[in-house]
């Protein structure tokens, strides 16, 4: 049996799991507050990893929301205001010193794609893209069986930061009109403020995408406007990924993918508008939910020889 310690670093918690032969044997969630820096979390993280580790574990795989240099594993950039102290830190050295284990660090969306391809909705797919919808928008791609990383590790993971609206709002990445700046959890306050009339969303403290879809379904006009902007934006982002990476399949992941309207809307948009020379690309929901990135641990360790 070969096992890995898998970490999935999110905005509200870090998931730490022992993954053995494609199965999560144990999982611990470390809650964090939105204002916390990353490096002060390391003592707590190390203690949890010791607790979860068994003799079957031969390495660490950490999914992180940022840009990562593929060879050194050093984090090059993080979303503005989040975990900026992790940039440049020698995590491979830290994991080695603290646990005596080799480590790999990968962008969270790319690890989720690897998990879905090995054990979920992308099994058997050599040409696919992932669109992750949540606080921000993540993406990843695989072409001809090779995971797409590029020169600095940023190829394929910036699908949420391709401009959808050249005259749109500024994004936290520095670009203008990114899909993520137009329609994501963090874009909701701007979308709600721009509504023509006051509605249920104005009275909802910290509304999320699930609230938007639930209210729209119940007939709230303002929520329906926000929902439709989100659907059109995500569909455009998905089709951009199909055109950029010649994908045969799009997998939609993240919390917003659970809303029943999302996958059918994107599938219909891709079916109608893709400039496809072969079979029309399929659009499916992720099969592994929040476990996708954790289950990407083993395929990440096995993927280095198959990347571009
Ligand atoms: Zn952006």
Can you walk me through this structure?
The chain is α/β, with parallel strands linked by helices and 308 residues long. Helices cover 32% and strands 21% of the residues. The protein is built from ten helices and twelve strands. The protein has helices at 42-52, 91-99, 108-119, 179-182, 188-193, 209-217, 221-245, 262-273, 292-295, 297-302, and strands at residues 3-9, 13-20, 23-31, 57-64, 67-68, 75-77, 103-107, 128-133, 137-143, 146-147, 249-253, 282-285. The strands form three sheets. Strands 3-2-1-4-7 form a five-stranded mixed beta sheet. Strands 10-9-8-11-12 form a five-stranded mixed beta sheet, sandwiched between helices. A hairpin with a 3-residue loop joins strand 1 and strand 2. The mean pLDDT is 94. The site of zinc ion (ZN) has 7 residues, from helix 4.
Structural key phrases:
308 residues; alpha/beta; five-stranded mixed beta sheet; 12 strands; 32% helix; globular; binds zinc ion
Task: Provide mean pLDDT, rounded.
Answer: 94
Record field, number of beta strands: 12
Order of strands across the widest beta sheet? 3-2-1-4-7
H/E element sequence = EEEHEEEHEHEEEHHHHEHEHH
- Number of H/I helices: 10
**Ligand catalogue:** zinc ion
Helix content: 25-40%
The global form is globular
Helix/strand/pairing category: alpha/beta
Uncertain ranges: none
